[in-house]
Design brief:
about 260 residues; mainly alpha; globular
Length: about 260
């Protein structure tokens, strides 16, 4: 059950969400700050996950809107992958509802570790994907294989969610899409579908701490908007290293205290 929140906790959540919004504008990885902060302020892990998921959905909607002009994907692929994402998001969120708090708490360090590793090696994966898109591959995997991959990513996204962006980037590249902006647009749209549909079961289960969501949404939006102006002046590599250090520190903390 979502719980009351103190002024100090509100200030802490707003501040960390603001920082996370700035990080996401430059290099990504804001969830490694917001999710642990929710837990540190007394929110139960499953509720923190649902609350963080809801805040991420708001950000994904904004991102999808920014890329809407680049969403030039074949209609059949768009509909099939959207439907798959919606189904997977529901399965993952419902699976979370039927996961006991003790089991989820034991899984949490491993979920964080997987997300941390995905984020850490995302640049290498992106480089490989960009190299692939510069080459002309005549054969692409069957759409069925891509749908199965997206279903698994969506289930993971509905259950936990951190790191799904880079996973979807890899899947969508194998559609043969050459335009990186089109891939980002598709990824943002599918991410908004996964996080958005996952909210519905969370709402019925009364798992979302709406006060925290509002505070984080406002802080994250302000952080992203204000930092976007200065993003070009910052070195993304340095920011990424900072996020990676924080992510491994949080992962280690949860391994110790799980």
């Amino acid at each position: 059950m979502p719980q009351d929140i103190t002024f100090i906790h509100s200030l802490l959540l707003f501040s960390t969400a603001f920082i996370a919004g700035g990080l996401n504008a430059v290099a990504g990885g804001g969830s490694f700050i917001t999710f642990p902060t929710l837990i540190f302020t007394g929110v139960a892990p499953i509720t923190a996950n649902a609350t963080n998921n809801t805040a991420l959905w708001i950000a994904a909607i904004a991102s999808a809107g920014a890329y809407r002009r680049d969403l030039s994907i074949e209609k059949r692929q768009l509909l099939l992958l959207t439907g798959t994402s919606l189904v997977g998001g529901v399965i993952g969120s419902v699976a979370l509802l039927y996961t006991s708090p003790d089991v989820f708490k034991k899984m949490l360090p491993y979920l964080l570790l997987s997300a941390t590793l995905i984020f850490t090696f995302s640049d290498s994966l992106k480089s490989w994907l960009q190299l692939r898109t510069r080459n002309d591959f005549s054969a692409t995997p069957p759409l069925f294989i891509l749908l199965i991959s997206q279903l698994l990513i969506s289930i993971y996204g509905g259950f936990f969610g951190a790191g799904i962006g880079i996973l979807m980037l890899a899947t969508l590249t194998f559609l043969g899409i050459k335009n990186i902006h089109a891939i980002n647009a598709f990824k943002s749209w599918l991410g908004s579908c996964i996080n958005g549909v996952a909210i519905i079961p969370f709402m019925f289960a009364n798992l979302i701490a709406w006060h925290q969501v509002i505070i984080m949404a406002v802080g994250g939006s302000l952080g992203g908007y204000l930092c976007a102006h200065f993003a070009r002046k910052l070195e993304p590599g340095v920011v990424r290293k900072f996020v990676i250090v924080v992510a491994f520190a949080m992962t280690t903390y949860f391994f110790i205290h799980s």
